[in-house]
Write a structure and sequence with these properties.
alpha+beta, six-stranded mixed beta sheet, 29 helices, elongated, binds manganese (II) ion
Length: 707
C-alpha cells in the first residue's frame, strides 16, 4: 500500500508541533514538482520513493529537518534543483543535510575486499558530518533494497553486495538493530537466493516446532519472577536469518546444533531487576558457565546493553535468555537514532531545555568516546563517531576507485608518496575530480585524485612544508640528504683534482690515505667535506705540498674574494659560486645552478639557452639570498637613432641613477641606427627594470635589450 503525505503528518503529530509540519508539507509539494514525470523501475511515480523514505524517517521519530530532507534527498541528484533552491525554500540546515546526501550518492563504491569496504564506510562517516545524513542514507538504501526486484540480476548483485559490505555494518555501528537485520536479510536474499530460501524454510519449521517449548519456558520464568515481585515482559525470539547463515558458514555445523537460534527475552524495569532475574533463572535451570555475558557492566561499542545466558531448560534442552531494561531494549533497536528523537517535544520547545538536551547529546557521545579507551577493540565505533564529531581525516579515491585515508590538510604529495616513492619524487601536481590543482591543494573527502608526474621533476625543500604525512616527509628528507651528499662529493672531487693538476701533483696519489690523515673514513667523505665547504682545498694542498713549494704556493695564490655570496644553494653552505657570463644573472632573476668541473657551482638564468643544454644530473637548486646586497655586472644594449648627443643622453641617465658603467661600446649599424652596449653594475632586477624603462622613454631610443 502506498504511503500518503497524511500518513507521514499523522506519524509526526506525536512529536512535531503543528507549525513545523508545514515545512514537511512544503517539502512534499516541492518533491512532487521536481520529480514530476519521473518513474521508478517498478513503473510507479518517482515520488513514491521520497514518500516512503520520509515515512520511515518519521517512524524513527527523527526531527523535522530530517523528515523534510528525506523528501528532498534525491532532488539535487536526480532533478535540476540546486542547493541554493533548497536553502532558499527550506533553510540552511535542511540544505546541508540534502547536500551531504547528494555527495554520498555521487560516489561509486565497488565491492571489494574487507579493507576497502572498511575505508568506504569510514569515508561515508567522514562525509556525513551530520548524523541525520547517515540515518537518511541508510533508510534510502533500505527502501531501495525493498524494491530491488525490479532491477536486473547484475544490478541486484552489485547493490546487494554493497549493502551487505557497507551499509549494514554502518547500521550496526550506529546500533540500529532492526535496520541492520533487514538490510542483511534482503542482501542475502539476492546474493544467495538458494541458501536463503532453504534456510528460511528450515527456520520457520524450527520456530513452529519449538513454539510449545518456548511458551513453557516463558510461563515458568514469568511465574517465578512474579513470586519475587518482578513485573516483566517476556518475548520469544528467533535468531535472524543472516546471523544464522554466518554462524553456519563460520562453524560448518548443521542448523540443529546451533543452540541460540531460539531464545527468550525478559524485559524489566531497572538494572537491579536484571541481575535479580538472572539469579532466579539460574536457580531454575543450570547455566552453561562460559555463555553468561554481562553487557550491562561492559556495554558493546554501539552502546548495546543486556545480560545473556544459556541454560539447560525444561527437558535439558538449551535455550538462550536475554535480560534487559525497557530502555536498553529501546536502544538495542534504535541505537544512535534513539538519542535523536524527541520523546517529549513540548518540553523541548523551551529553548533553554533544548540547549540542555543538545548538551547532553554531546556529553553522551563524549562519554562514549572516553569509554572506548577501556574496550579491547576500540577500533570500530570509536573511529566512526570520532570521524563524525572531530573530522580529522579525509578519504579520497584513487583513479581505480580505491579509497585511501589521510590526515586533514594532506596534499597531492602525500597521496603520490603513499602510492609509490618514485611517483612522489616526480609529482608535479594532480587532477582532482578532473581539474588540475597545485601541489599544495588540500585533499577533501570524496575527491578523486590522479597524480601528474614528470621525469624532470624532483623534490625540493619547499616540499617539506607541503607534505603532511610522515611517510612523504621521510621520503623527501632522505632524497634531499642523499642529493646534497652526492652533489657535495662531486663538487669536492672536482675542486681537489683541479687544484692538484694545476700544481702538477700526480693523480695517482693515495686519496683514501689522505682522507684518513684528515680523519675521514673514506675519500668520498673528504670530498663531501670540501664540497660542503667545511674543509678547504688549500688546507689539503698545504699538507701534501713539499716544503719548498709551500712558500711559492702562498704567493702565487693570494686569497681570492669569494663572489656570489648573494646566492644560496638549498641545504648546502659555503659552496663556491660563480655567475655565468653568458646570461649574467642578477637578484630577482629566475636562476638555476650547475655543478661545473673544477669551478664549483655556476649560476645561470633559468631561461639561458646554454643552461638548457647542460646535463640535468648536474642541476642543483639555488635561490637568491635577498639579505645580501651586492652589485652584479650585466650587459645592456640600446638600439637608437644615429644622431649627435644620443650616447651622451643615455650615459647621463645611467649616471643620474648612480649606476657604474664598467665598459662601453658604440657602433653604427647598416640601417642607419646605432648600437650602444654597456656593462653596468646593478644591484638587482628591480633597479635594472627601472633604468630600462627610463631609457625606453628617451626620444630616439628604439629598443633596450639585456643580453
Ligand atoms: Mn533515494
Amino acid at each position: 500500500m502506498t504511503v500518503r503525505i497524511n500518513d507521514i503528518l499523522d506519524e509526526v503529530s506525536s512529536y512535531i508541533p503543528e507549525e513545523d509540519k508545514r515545512l514537511i508539507e512544503k517539502a512534499y509539494v516541492f518533491s512532487a514538482r521536481v520529480h514530476q514525470g519521473q518513474k521508478r523501475l517498478s513503473g510507479e511515480p518517482y515520488l513514491h520513493h521520497p514518500l516512503e523514505v520520509a515515512h520511515i524517517v518519521a517512524q524513527m521519530r527523527l526531527d523535522v529537518t530530517a523528515v523534510t530532507a528525506a523528501f528532498l534527498h534525491d532532488a539535487i541528484e536526480d532533478s535540476l534543483t540546486k542547493r541554493e533552491d533548497i536553502q532558499q525554500e527550506f533553510g540552511e540546515e535542511v540544505a546541508q543535510v540534502v547536500e551531504g546526501l547528494t555527495k554520498i550518492s555521487k560516489m561509486n563504491f565497488r565491492s571489494v575486499e574487507e579493507q576497502q569496504a572498511e575505508n568506504f564506510r569510514k569515508m561515508i562517516l567522514a562525509m556525513s558530518k551530520d548524523l541525520r545524513v547517515l540515518l537518511i542514507k541508510l533508510v534510502d538504501r533500505l527502501h531501495n533494497m525493498r524494491t530491488l526486484e525490479y532491477h536486473n540480476r547484475a544490478s541486484q548483485l552489485r547493490i546487494a553486495r554493497e549493502t551487505l559490505d557497507i551499509y549494514a555494518p554502518l547500521a550496526n555501528r550506529l546500533g540500529i538493530h532492526w535496520l541492520q537485520v533487514e538490510l542483511e536479510e534482503l542482501s542475502l536474499r539476492y546474493l544467495e537466493p538458494e541458501d536463503y530460501h532453504v534456510l528460511k524454510t528450515k527456520l520457520d519449521a524450527v520456530a513452529l516446532e519449538k513454539e510449545p517449548f518456548l511458551r513453557d519456558v516463558m510461563a515458568q520464568v514469568s511465574s517465578k519472577l512474579e513470586e519475587a515481585g518482578i513485573r516483566a515482559e517476556l518475548k520469544s525470539r528467533i535468531k535472524h536469518i543472516y546471523s544464522v547463515y554466518q554462524k553456519l558458514k563460520r562453524q560448518g555445523i548443521p542448523l540443529e546444533n546451533i543452540y541460540d537460534v531460539l531464545g527468550v527475552r525478559v524485559i524489566v524495569n531497572n538494572v537491579g531487576e536484571c541481575y535479580a532475574a538472572l539469579g532466579i533463572i539460574h536457580n531454575m535451570w543450570k547455566p552453561i558457565q562460559q555463555r553468561i555475558k554481562d553487557f550491562i557492566a561492559m556495554p558493546k561499542p554501539n552502546k548495546y546493553q543486556s545480560l545473556h545466558t544459556t541454560v539447560f531448560g525444561p527437558g535439558g534442552e538449551r535455550i538462550e535468555i536475554q535480560i534487559r531494561t525497557y530502555e536498553m531494549d529501546f536502544i538495542a533497536n534504535e541505537g544512535i537514532a534513539a538519542h535523536w528523537l524527541y520523546k517529549d517535544y513540548s518540553k523541548l520547545r523551551d529553548q533553554a531545555k533544548l540547549r540542555d538536551q543538545q548538551g547532553q547529546e554531546l556529553s553522551w557521545l563524549r562519554r562514549l568516546l572516553e569509554s572506548q579507551k577501556e574496550l579491547k577493540d576500540p577500533r570500530e565505533f570509536l573511529q566512526s563517531v570520532k570521524l563524525d564529531l572531530y573530522p580529522e581525516d579525509v578519504f579520497v579515491f584513487t583513479p581505480r576507485g580505491e579509497v585511501l585515508q589521510f590526515p586533514l590538510g594532506a596534499t597531492p604529495l602525500d597521496f603520490a608518496y603513499s602510492v609509490h616513492t618514485q611517483l612522489g619524487h616526480q609529482c608535479t601536481g594532480a587532477k582532482v575530480n578532473g581539474q588540475i590543482v597545485k601541489l599544495n591543494y588540500e585533499l577533501k573527502s570524496g575527491d578523486v585524485i590522479e597524480i601528474m608526474r614528470s621525469p624532470k621533476q624532483h623534490p625540493s625543500k619547499d616540499w617539506m612544508r607541503i607534505a603532511r604525512t610522515s611517510r612523504a616527509r621521510n621520503k623527501i628528507q632522505t632524497w634531499l640528504r642523499t642529493q646534497e651528499r652526492e652533489q657535495s662529493i662531486a663538487l669536492g672531487r672536482e675542486m681537489l683534482e683541479k687544484k692538484l693538476k694545476s700544481l702538477h701533483i700526480s693523480k695517482d696519489m693515495d686519496l683514501e690515505a689522505l682522507a684518513r690523515e684528515f680523519s675521514f673514513k673514506t675519500a668520498d667523505d673528504l670530498y663531501a667535506s670540501i664540497g660542503y665547504g667545511r674543509t678547504s682545498v688549500n688546507q689539503i694542498v698545504h699538507k701534501i705540498l713539499p716544503e719548498e713549494q709551500k712558500k711559492e704556493f702562498k704567493e702565487v695564490h693570494p686569497k681570492k674574494k669569494q663572489v656570489g655570496s648573494s646566492v644560496v644553494v638549498k641545504g648546502v653552505d659555503n659552496l663556491l659560486i660563480r655567475f655565468a657570463r653568458c646570461c649574467r644573472p642578477i637578484p630577482g632573476d629566475d636562476i638555476i645552478g650547475f655543478i661545473t668541473r673544477g669551478k664549483g657551482i655556476t649560476v645561470h638564468r633559468s631561461n639561458c639557452p646554454y643552461a638548457t643544454e647542460i646535463d640535468s644530473q648536474r642541476i642543483i637548486p639555488v635561490e637568491w639570498d635577498m639579505g645580501v646586497s651586492e652589485s652584479h655586472e650585466i650587459e645592456l644594449t640600446a638600439i637608437c637613432q644615429d644622431k649627435p648627443g644620443m650616447l651622451g643622453s643615455i650615459t647621463a641617465i645611467i649616471g643620474a641613477r648612480n649606476i657604474n658603467i664598467t665598459k662601453l661600446n658604440a657602433s653604427s649599424m647598416p640601417n642607419g641606427n646605432s648600437m650602444c652596449s654597456f656593462r653596468l653594475l646593478v644591484k638587482d632586477l628591480g633597479e635594472l627594470e627601472k633604468l630600462s624603462a627610463e631609457l625606453r622613454k628617451l626620444k630616439g631610443v628604439e629598443r633596450i635589450e639585456r643580453k
